[in-house]
Amino acid sequence: MTKIFFRNFRVSCLQLNKCNYATAPNAIATIKLNNKEYVTDDYTNVTPKILSYLNRNLHLKKDNPLSLVRQRIVNYFYSSFTHRGNPTFSVYENLSPVVTTKQNFDDLLIPENHPSRTKSDCYYINRKTLLRAHMTAHQSELLRSGLDNFLMIGDVYRRDEIDSTHFPVFHQIDAVRSQRKEQLFQDFPDLELFEPTFDPQNPHIFTNSIKDPNKQSCHTLEATKLMEAQLKNHLIGLVQTLFGDNIKHRWVEAYFPFTHPSWELEIFYENNWLEVLGCGIVRNEILANAGPNNTIAYAFGLGLERIAMALYKIPDIRLMWSKDSGFLSQFEDKALNERITYKPVSSYPQCVNDISFWLPPNLTIDTFTSNDFYDLVRDVGGDIIEQVKLKDKFVHPKSKKHSLCYSIIYRHLERTLKQAEVNEVHKEIEKAAVKAFNVIIR
């Protein structure tokens, strides 16, 4: 069970958000996650609300739509890749979401100044530890263990806006497939994985470059192009398995720090182009640092929520977390490939309240971090918060004070909210904003 405590007393949501431990100057503030304690510091921004989602494992819940999509994807890889009748892909579905910054960033060649490292994007436990922002965080540790083909499935955590398609916790499948020369070129033994200037036994004396858009400098063009062809064929087969053989698709060139070349796959679905995954050829530095110096690999990652919402016409991402039988029963005991269209149990009305405040002198409309405010709103309002939108920015022409206005949309998924109870929650959000950010409510 996840717990948050200061040795002998609990910490409030706002104290945890601000890392304000002044009430206990001689105590060491710690967070206990899955029976392990972590010392907090100035980077700590994970909140009790976010920690309450740990260990829910929606991707493993039998009647959850995320589990249906997960099983369909796993089955595709089991059936598509076999050796002597056995699946060649191994599956890891219970990896701990608590990772180090080395796992989440350094092992994946993500630069120190990359925006994905910032406190506004990630949920940090402390400077060296965070809730994983992507399943790729486990890639190097699995490669080091000697694995060559594997799927990593689990929940990931990112600070984000609040609306019907964004939630701070979602679920990903990441995969790696690596091949040696004799596997990739079994019909062309004279071809090579690496350029003559690159020695796979001494990879660190070679500076790998990604200046060529077609390949990494260590790889031959033949190896890269054959891996690209395999990768794209396999992923087109996957989306056809999910969305039908006639689904239109297109490839878009992309950039990821851990692959080169890289692409995104989009499908034409419901009269719109929908991005479904990112992929590419794994940077050789990652493979060399993890141990396998004689292979080339591809990798991809996709979000289960995006696929499930499109397949089953689910309008609100919060429904994935619902325990309501009216939602779950629609996916109960269904065949994996059955066509399911979600039918709303009932439609409850929205309540919309605005909040406007003057920022303190040390903040401006450009330096205030909206994700901090979103986390506060979510912590106070919980799952009745449907959306938070920045409505207006204002600088007073005379006083030069900066003001922000947000619209908060409240809606309960299982009953009608009364305006009076919404107003009470809204007042608590105002109080919390004053305390957390030193703002003045307008």
Notes on the structure:
The chain is 26% helix and 27% strand. It has a seven-stranded mixed sheet with strand order 6-10-11-15-14-13-12. A four-stranded antiparallel sheet has the order 17-18-16-19. Strands 1-2-3 form a three-stranded antiparallel sheet, with no helix packed on it. The chain has three domains: 45 residues, no CATH class; 215 residues, BirA Bifunctional Protein, domain 2, CATH 3.30.930.10; 91 residues, Alpha-Beta Plaits. The two termini are 40 Å apart. Helix 3 crosses helix 7, helix 3 packs across helix 9 and helix 11 packs across helix 12. It has 442 residues and is an alpha+beta fold. The protein is built from twelve helices and 19 strands. It is an enzyme of class 6 (ligase).
Looking at this protein, list some descriptive labels.
3 domains; 7-stranded mixed beta sheet; 19 strands; BirA Bifunctional Protein, domain 2; 27% strand; 4-stranded antiparallel beta sheet; 442 residues; 12 helices; alpha+beta; disordered N terminus; Alpha-Beta Plaits
Fourth CATH level, the homologous superfamily of the largest domain: Bira Bifunctional Protein, Domain 2
CATH topology of the largest domain: BirA Bifunctional Protein, domain 2
- Overall pLDDT level: 90
Number of helices: 12
Low-confidence stretches: 1-25
Instruction: Write down the Rg.
Output: 24 Å
% residues in beta strands? 25-35%
Q: What would you call the structural class?
A: alpha+beta
Task: Report the CATH architecture of the largest domain.
Answer: 2-Layer Sandwich
Quaternary state reads single chain
Globular, elongated, flat, extended or rod-shaped: what is the shape? globular
